[in-house]
Amino acid sequence: MSSEAEFERAARILAEHGVTRAIDCAIVLGTGLGLLAEQVEDAVRIPYAAIPGFPSGAVSGHARQLCIGRLEGRTVLIFQGRAHYYEGGDPAAMRVPLGMLTALGSPPLILTNAAGSLRPELPPGSLVLVNDHINLNGPNPLIGDTGDGRFVPMVDAYDPALRERLKAAAGKAGLPLGEGVYMWFSGPSFETPAEIRMAQVLGADLVGMSTVPEVILARRQGLRVAAVSVVTNMGAGLHGGAPHHGETKDVASASGGELARLLRAFLRELADA
Questions:
Q1: How many CA atoms lie within 13 A of 264 on its CB side?
Q2: φ, ψ dihedrals at 231, nearest 5°
Q3: 228-243 burial by CB neighbour count: b if 16+ within 10 A, else e?
Q4: Which pLDDT band holds residue 242 (cuts at 50, 70, 90)?
Q5: pLDDT (average), residues 46-74
Q6: Cα 246 from Cα 223, distance rounded (Å)
Q7: Nearest 10 degrees: CA dihedral of 100, 94, 159, 133?
Q8: Which of 21, 82, 163, 265 has the most CB atoms around it within 10 Å of its CB?
Q9: What is the pLDDT of residues 132-191, one digit of tens each?
Q10: Which CATH number fits domain 3-272: 3.30.413.10, 3.40.50.1580, 3.40.50.920, 3.30.70.1140?
């Protein structure tokens, strides 16, 4: 089955649940960041298990369902949880969920994640706009793809216009919003202090176990992408940093309200466009 057919098949499941209109914005929620989905009006919720090509399995802090409805006057599609490379060794595990968006009007895609900080001025609880990434340790999700479309240019992979709208939204919401480079580590073990020092030397500001494969997959489909990290810990060995998954979930949940405020303000920016 071709990729396009897989995407259309997944979209048909949504249509069977009454989701037929174009989507204004799609959002992927990271670990512990599910608060926004609870605020969606007239929500239709569909478990990933009900949609062909969507990831199975579970990671604590990820609900693994779609939530489609209205927020700030816009039609939104929220992925409550993602599949990670460390779960099954497939960097393209989110290929069908993200590719399905092309059958729903190719809306802008906002990725969120919980991340470790490498900069003292970005302490736990900070919101950080990702402006670029480093993929040093993880495989590329387009390996095995065919055709010239696989040679995806990655300059401005994090769409400048969407980044400006997120900055404007943060200003209107009165929220500080840092900015930096995100470095992907495969996980599931956290980084060593030596790896954190290496990441600093290479120019990273944040580290995490997601997002980068999704950006590559989304750009392969021509989607416009932006990403926001919620800092949940300092990198290993920095200012007492000794990250663990419980900390990631707890701090992300505590910061979920500010992330929801930012994204709702961003949706209002879209509505004013």
A1: 19
A2: -75, 125
A3: bbbbbbbbbebeebeb
A4: low
A5: 85
A6: 33
A7: -170
A8: 82
A9: 999 987 689 999 999 999 999 999 999 999 999 999 999 999 999 999 999 999 989 989
A10: 3.40.50.1580
Domain boundaries, the chain: 3-272
Contact call for residues 5 and 103 (beta carbons, < 8 A): no
Q: How far is Cα 230 from Cα 33, in angstroms, rounded to an integer?
A: 9
Whole-model pTM over 0.90: yes
Before 91, cis peptide (omega within 30)? Answer: no
State how far the Cα of 251 lies from the Cα of 56, in Å rounded to an integer.
26
On the CB side of 84, how many CA atoms lie within 13 Å of its CA? 22
**How many Å from the N-terminal Cα to the C-terminal Cα in the chain?**
38
Q: Please give the distance of CA 186 from its chain centroid, rounded to a whole number.
A: 15
pLDDT (mean) for 196-212:
96
DSSP three-state, residue 36? helix
Cα–Cα distance for residue pair 176/123, rounded to 1 Å: 12
Residue 163 structure tokens: 């980044």
Which of 229, 123, 224, 120 minimizes the C-alpha distance to 182?
229
Report CA-CA distances (Å) from 198 to 136, 138, 145. Answer: 11, 15, 31
Amino acid at site 253: S
- Cβ contact 141:184 at 8 Å: no
Question: What is the number of alpha carbons within 13 Å of residue 169 lying toward its C-beta?
Answer: 26
